[in-house]
Amino acid sequence: MSASKLFSLDKKVILITGANGQLCRAIAQTLTEFGAYLVLTDKVIDACRKTESKICKSGGKAISLEMDVTDKGSIEKCVDKVLRHFKKIDTLVNNAGMGVFTPFEKRTPEEFDKIMAINAKGAFLCSQVVSKSMIKRRKGNIVNIGSIYGLVAPDQRIYADSGRNCSEVYAMSKAAVIQLTKYLACYLSKYNIRVNCISPGGIFNKQLEKFIRNYSYKTPLRRMGLTKELSGALVYLSSDASEYVTGHNLIVDGGFTCW
Question: Domain map of the chain by residue range?
Fold first, then answer.
């Protein structure tokens, strides 16, 4: 098989949660260039519609739908619309997530519950609902978005007084996503459904210069990542190039977790 066919996403329907976020805006165009039809979902879809417009103007196909990943009814309603429109969902990308930056000592139960509900429960609920149609087709693909902080503890020294310290609950939620990936990869394998995870390292987003310098020093490639550098990983895991890959956590971190 030629490389172009191996990595082709031609007419594959890819549903992305949390599509208002930084990651989706960067990778959406790449996915459509490989032929995918995108379903951009979020609780508030204003930014999704802007991304959709750019994709459609460049010749790609995308639609935007409202969906709350913490509400099973909302997910079912959205997925039903997608199935009526496209008849299938080839890949679910569990991208919805958020962080919190107040210190551990001041963590409120409400903050804890909100982060876990969006990051961990959201991935669980979306996988549960979307996999129903995949099970019927005996084919499907789920890609979860984890984090290096689901694998290693944040080095608090690199944050200094930035006020953007990675929280314990965010780390917990992403560890849960990575474990969910492994569990579902085994559980859904009998239906020919693959489940993998991408764990990004620090992504540049106009952080304070001191933080960028500290983070880059701790990274073998000596810099922060760019959102576009996650595109290749997602294309790979969504395409036939990875058809024998499941239960894998693909770390895209410039080597940060190597030492």
Answer: 3-250
**Closest C-alpha to 5, from 228, 243, 227, 193:** 243
Is the pLDDT confidence value at 145 over 90? Answer: yes
Q: How many CB atoms lie within 10 A of CB 6?
A: 13
**Active-site position among 149, 170, 215, 236:** 170
Tokens of 118: 């969006």
- pTM of this prediction? 0.95
pLDDT of the residue at 75: 98
At which residue do the structure tokens 């540049």 appear?
A: 204
Q: pLDDT per residue over 21-67, tens digit each?
A: 877 877 898 999 999 999 999 999 988 999 999 999 989 999 999 99
In angstroms, the CA 141 to CA 231 distance is 16
For 85, 176, 255, the CA distances from 210, given in Å and listed in that order, are: 48, 30, 20
3-250 CATH fold = Rossmann fold (3.40.50)
The string of pLDDT tens digits covering residues 57-86 is 989 999 999 999 999 999 999 999 999 999
Nearest Cα neighbor of 92 from 22, 40, 29, 35 is: 40
Torsion sign, CA atoms 98, 148, 180, 132: positive
* Mean pLDDT (whole number) for 181-191: 98
Q: What's phi and psi for 66, nearest 5 deg?
A: -75, 135
Per the annotation, the verdict on 183 as an active-site residue is no
Q: Are 17 and 66 in contact (CB under 8 A)?
A: no
Residues 6+ positions from 255 with CB-CB distance below 8 Å: 219, 220, 221
